[in-house]
């Protein structure tokens, strides 16, 4: 019975984590990679509209491996995925969102 009580909070956390949308996960990953919150929110919206779920999962792999120091280093890290569309969409979103041309 004691094991069950300890397991319930972990199950709730796992269930809630599964409820986050791809956009929320991308935003959190970008912030974790060193992108400022407002720019990360803008980029996440654009990226989830333009990348497939498989590409978004691959993008998440980079964030788990290491923390970039801003957008420039993140783009360099993304090149290791060998998917030009991920790099292009991320770089374009970063440029548009950082410049204020997209919100």
TrEMBL record:
<protein>
    <recommendedName>
        <fullName>Lipoprotein</fullName>
    </recommendedName>
</protein>
């Amino acid at each position: 019975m004691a094991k069950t009580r300890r397991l319930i909070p972990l199950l709730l956390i796992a269930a809630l984590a599964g409820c986050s949308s791809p956009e929320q996960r991308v935003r959190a990953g970008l912030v974790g990679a060193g992108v400022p919150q407002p720019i990360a929110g803008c980029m996440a919206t654009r990226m989830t509209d333009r990348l497939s779920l498989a590409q978004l999962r691959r993008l998440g792999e980079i964030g788990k491996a290491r923390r970039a120091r801003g957008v420039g280093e993140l783009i360099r890290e993304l090149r290791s995925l060998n998917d030009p569309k991920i790099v292009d969409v991320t770089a374009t979103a970063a440029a548009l969102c950082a410049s204020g041309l997209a919100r």
